[in-house]
Amino acid sequence: MSNERRAAIPLSGFQDPVIAYTIEGEDARVTAANEPFENRFDSEPPDTRVSTIFDRFNIQHTTGDRDPLAHLVAGDCVGIRLDGYGHEGPFFARVIPSDEHTGYLVFSDLRDCPDRKDSPGFDQVTSVISHDLRNPLDVAKAHLRAAEETGDPEHFESVSDAHDRMERIIRDVLTLTRDGAVVDPSEKVAIETAARDAWQSIDSEQAELTLSDSLPTVMADPDRLQRLFENLFRNSIEHGVAADQMESTNHDAQITRDRSTTEDAEESKTVTISVHPSPDGFYVADDGSGIPRAERDIVFEAGYSTDDGGTGLGLAIVERIVDAHGWGLTLTDADSGGVQFELSV
Fold first, then answer.
1. Which of 53, 112, 110 is nearest to 85 (CA)?
2. Which helix (H) or strand (E) holds 212?
3. What is the mean pLDDT of the chain?
4. Stretch (H or E) spanning 97
5. I need a labelling partner for 178 at 20 to 30 A (CA). Which of 154, 161, 215, 265 fits?
6. Is the pLDDT score of 73 beyond 80?
7. Boundaries of domain holding 135
8. SS3 218
9. pTM, whole model, 2 decimals?
10. DSSP secondary-structure letter at 13?
11. Of all residues in the chain, what percent carry a pLDDT higher than 90?
12. Which residues make beta-bridge pairs with 283?
């Protein structure tokens, strides 16, 4: 990535303390710092090693499985909890890679998020952040690769939109930790529009979306409604596609592969998701593997997942958004054989 492209994210645009860094071997060097960082940490001149900044803190925990510097050098988008630096902090530092060798480290003072008995714990908050940010982050990465390959400037607009989406998600999570699930269902929102916008955030090549021509308009919080659709769509894609791929693998192990079976396997990787009206609202259905009846009482619990790589937060977030709107949510079998989420509004 060129210096001109990196400069598209000015440090002055961050309200929290932030540094820009470049990777050098097994460490990183500070290339710039914004004014809030200089005021909070008594300045850091260029060429300061990031390791010396981490060493100021006696307590260092990450949302990953390695130490903070190792994650930063590897380009991992992780969160780091830092404490034990005089009277400052504790801080939650976010590693935001810019390209293979550069990035940003943003420090948020956790004292700005009061500790409340009904607030999500540190692990849950960081899991929500990592789960919800994955959608626009994947979109940004895909369009950035396409822009580098084709030079088409339209891809940069999509990257910018994805970054805006990530900023809104971070703002929502901060609101969640401070004041609970604040929802403002005061706007008339077309279900079709919310679903299409959410689908653009998913940007999946392994799924198809079909929308009814007669979807209703509801009173809702437009941003939260889009989040609801994003999580329902991702749930169908992750579980439906994974199941189809496993069935395809088992089938191919029993027969000789040829061109026709390879094409069949590719087709089996696509899950179809539908959004249709219902007598009292709308529903989202897919033709995936469905959810066993024995598991339907627990799939909305935070942390429950049948996917080894899943966070188990997608459907929990859906239920919370539904409850905050005062709607009803029912899980049933879809006519297509998959799962159907019915929302009464």
1. 53
2. none
3. 77
4. strand 91-97
5. 161
6. yes
7. 115-180
8. strand
9. 0.53
10. G
11. 30
12. 276, 342
